[in-house]
Write a structure and sequence with these properties.
Helices cover 37% and strands 21% of the residues. The protein has 382 residues and is α+β, with helices and mostly antiparallel strands. The chain has three domains: 72 residues, Arc Repressor Mutant, subunit A (Orthogonal Bundle); 205 residues, no CATH class; 48 residues. The longest helix has 48 residues. The chain starts with 29 loop residues before the first helix and ends in a 5-residue tail after the last helix.
Length: 382
Amino acid sequence: MISHNKNYSLNAPLDRQLNAQLELSVQSDKVSCNRKRRYTTTHDVATLAVEKYKISGRGITFKDLMFSGLAKHKSQAQNTLKRCLSKKVLFVIKDHKPQQYFASSLKAEIFGARLSKNAPVRVTELPFSQSTHQSTNDAIVMQTLEGYILPILSDIPLHIHKIQLRLELRSEYYNEIPVHVSPGNKSKEHREIVGPGALVTYLYYPSGTVMVFTECSNTPFTLHTEDDLVRLIVFLGAVRDRLVVFLHDKHERIVPDIMHWYLTQCDINKDVKMDDWFQFTGIKIQVRHALHLFRIYIKSKGKDTLCRVEESTSHKNKSAIKTIRDIFNPYERLEKQIGDLGKKIDRLTLAHNNYECSKIDLGQTDYDTTRSVNKEGGSINC
């Protein structure tokens, strides 16, 4: 018999807030649902490749990705490396087991380090002469210079680096410079980093002469537009400012104005971007053309391989700013010389004309005097 006294309230549905959601089998790991999936970025891989090459000189493998935590298993590490290779973040030099991958940002540097140092070839005259005794490498070098590099040099911007400056201080300041004295020439040296990667060395001598050497071969200054010229002059101002700060010259009475600094030597260059495999040609020669002696060699600059055509120039007792302006615009100096020559010619022409006019006036005066005397004597000569 069914009891009619049963409490039907027990069969009432639960409140919505009390209804717990059922946990599905595919969602058993609640933590993994809330955690974002982590992807290995190409930047992390490239950084790892750079660090390993700097330490050991080798490339990374799939084992390095697994050891560093960038990949959990072998197939993921290999796929990551292949993806970076397709994006040209990494590159390979030769087949290796396991395959080694290198950072593309160090491509030119890696190729250059793997080559043996090549001795400079003897000074060569232009144009090059073809000889049957030339090696295959020499023939490639000459063909590259004549057929590719030299024809496009006129369209490539001019650069300047290795700037050497000279200025004069009062000799009594030498003893106040807080730097150790070199045993040889008794110079005092200190260095500063100025601008984007330029190492500046200051050498102080007992006579008061200060030599300033700038090392910026990897980041030479462009001399193509007026903005480039202003940027270089600003850099020279920064070099002077570092000297002012180092000598505690608050009122700028010790360090002379930049207009009284002299440029003693500099290297002028033009860089032609080449394929990385030109590192294996080992181009390193000197070329004499007219009155100039050029150095031509392959240079690594980050991920780029450059063929640099370079000339060293020396200057004496000439303002640094004026010298740089002459290098930037040699035609301006030529035009000024032509203008000065024209002024001299004008002055000479004017002096000659005045001399001729004075001769004519003097001749006319003599003629009038003679005619007057003859008239008084009773005879006239016409």
